[in-house]
Amino acid sequence: MPGIAGIICPNPHEAMSRDLDLMVEAMRHEPFYTGNKYVNTDLGLYVGWMSHEGSYADCMPLIDNERGIVLIFSGENFLKLNTTSRISKTDRPINKDTAQSLISLYTENRDDFLKNLNGWFCGLLVDLRSKKVTLFNDRYGMSRVYFNEGNGEFLFASEAKSILKIRPSLRVINPNTFAQYLRFNCVMGNRSLFEGISLLPPASSWEFERSAIPQKQSYFDYSDWESLTTLSPDDFYDKFAATVSDVFPGYVQGRQRVAFSLSAGLDTRVIMAATSDPGKALPCYTFGGPWGELFDIRAARKLAQISDQRFDVIRADQAFFRDFANFARRSVYISDGTYDAFGAHDVYFNQIARKIAPIRLTGKFGSEIVRIRKLIPRFNYPPGLVNPDFQMILDELPPADAFNQKAHPLTRVVSEEIPWYEYGRVSIEQSQSTLRTPYMDNEVVKLMYQAPHEVRVAGRLQEQYVREKNRKLIDVPTNMGKFASSNQMISKLLYGALWAMFKVEYIYLYATPHWMTRIDRALEGLRLERIFAGRQKWEGHRIWIKTEFPEFVQQTLLDSGAQYTRYFEKSTVHKMVARHIAGTHNYLNEINKALSVELICSTLLHP
Fold this sequence. Notes:
The protein is an alpha+beta fold. The chain has two domains: about 5-220, Glutamine Phosphoribosylpyrophosphate, subunit 1, domain 1 (4-Layer Sandwich), CATH 3.60.20.10; about 235-375 and about 410-605, Rossmann fold (3-Layer(aba) Sandwich). The protein has 27 helices and 16 strands. The strands form three sheets. It has a six-stranded antiparallel sheet with strand order 2-3-1-9-8-10, with helices on one face. It is globular, with a radius of gyration of 25 Å.
């Protein structure tokens, strides 16, 4: 995955260069990655990076004309034209398509440079005159920086495996954060699964002056946005429409091709309405499974036709199933254990998506930011599955809300829930393509702090924008029935029917009771999945465990040397695997978690 890795040590030793090479190479997951390094022994700084070839940041390091400043940047930065002209204090043109412009922006706006950046990023600023190094990340913490401080050195990297690679003593699971992972499917509080490795908090600007001990500072405080005045509903909508129309088009620009990951919902439809340009190619694609045409696929195809754009369907097919074991391992390894084994499809899908375009535009987090939808789930485990020692820690965990450090609900979503819970999937997607979502643009997020409560509750903000901006797009109903009828009663009835179908499909594919799995087994000749699945959801892992990759599950979890047994009772897992594959029980979540833990151990702790 693109990112940075390095060591800050005022007393460097001979092994530093070797360690740096190992850290950087640990982040090379594809042949199209490009990497390099910058070393300054006077400052005790050893830093390297990985980029996607031809991407925004594939031009490091950046050095100013006076050769007093070195900037190493990973990620993207989105500046509107009027923002660029306001920041630039010279008449020199600024090319927003590459990171080369950032060195000029820094030299002209040193104090406000980090605050003016807009996107997901991390990096280093090196001031050779003052001999000061500043490590920074974006205000949401979406571009992770793991770190370990101690023993006279400060280690940092965009991927935890880079640190684990050179310091084997850190290859230890932290029992408390592991318990969070089991219960909430993520680690919270800017910590990691690994003992002694933490996360740089959002909006950090940590300074090092000839020392491995940082001065920990922040360049942005969410209270600045939380104190904004709430607008009236009419004024807010006018400002929302103007902001979306102004900001969203910038996300289809750049020197690389952009493709649109399209769905049937409102989040992507708003983007399509805002970025519609008859003269610009914006190929579209939608992900799907082996069972027929999802509602998303049918609707997205029609939307692409309306916009006169190419449309592709990327499916989980036999090529995916044949190499599932490899994709599962990569899902866990690339994400540093933050994404499950059954996230394997996201590796496969995004590999194919890159062939269409190296930049993937999505509507990710639109619902969370526009309507403040919570993300973090809670998982319970059957008695006897988790080892007693870990079960005690699990039982003592407070609710997920207790880990939130921010009081404002939107601040919790953008700076905690999304970067904690969604990072795993994002890291997999970013390993293959550059991921863009305009919903996390600074201007958009800032504006949502001014949304009236009644506007959020009504949930019609995006619908109104689409109706006014491009009425052709309302000819295609959403997956929950919006735009299907102008009659309010019919719309409610349709929503209820679609929701009921969604729940039936969810229960059949995921939350199937044990008694229902036995009925499914008895009627397997009827291929009930073709009846109950493939409308809204395509992920059939409950079924695939016994039909597509039972050998991988058995070989991994029934192996006598399996390492997951430190955390789960081996005999219980064996029974679950046997019963699930026999079709008498549904242990989808338990098998997924045991597989994921085993792959964490085998790929990250004992590679």
